[in-house]
Amino acid sequence: MELNLPKYDFNISKDEKGTVTIYDRLRRRYVALTPEEWVRQHFTRFLIEERGFPEGLMANEVSLTQNGIHRRCDTLVADPGGEPLAIVEYKAPSVAVTQKTFDQIVRYNMVLKARYLMVSNGLAHYCCEIDYDTGTYRFLQDIPPYSTLAR
Predict the structure, then answer these.
(1) Handedness of CA 76, 5, 116, 52 (dihedral sign)
(2) Which of 2, 4, 43, 146 measures 20 to 30 Å from 91, CA to CA?
(3) Has residue 118 been placed in a domain?
(4) Is the model's pTM score more than 0.85?
């Protein structure tokens, strides 16, 4: 499946049940290869290899609790001090990025309080910077390098 991201080599195999799996280097295990997972694996590699995001400060499928409800953030990126810097939400390429997608990531951010929110369906990518001092946000033109985010 073609994405609007660089091409990368991945370890893909089948498990004992015949399910196609892909190795997730952040979780250090094989996971089911769904269209959303294909986007996640490409986008995390893009962040690491093209934008200099430190692999050791990234995690996939991070659990959080909001109003007593357990949820999972697709990818969490920490700053050098270990505090949430960015959260990323993925959708399959066949799923349009809509206001509902942004509402979902904003709900997660009510708990995490990251400064950057990213959304990607592998075809379109968005990055939004939150200014907590003024209560405003702005969309960035591109996904910036980690060095400019973690200032």
Answers:
(1) positive
(2) 146
(3) yes
(4) yes
Give the CATH number of the domain where residue 87 resides: 3.90.1570.30
Residue at 4 is within a domain = no
Beta-carbon-side half-sphere exposure of residue 32 (alpha carbons within 13 Å): 6
From edge to edge, which strands make up the β-sheet containing 136-140?
58-66, 69-78, 84-90, 116-120, 125-131, 136-140
5 found inside a domain: no
> What is the per-residue pLDDT across 7-42, written as a single tens digit (0 to 9) for each?
999 999 998 899 999 999 999 999 999 999 999 999
Cα(72)–Cα(69) distance, integer angstroms: 10
d(CA 52, CA 43) in angstroms, rounded, equals: 12
Give the alpha-carbon dihedral of 76, 34, 42, 11, to 10 degrees: 110
> Domain for residue 2, yes or no?
no
pLDDT digits (tens, 9 = 90+) for 90-106: 999 999 999 898 888 98
Nearest to 66 by CA among 116, 122, 104: 104
Q: What is the tally of structural domains in the chain?
A: 1
pLDDT score at 14: 94
Q: What is the mean pLDDT of residues 71-81?
A: 92
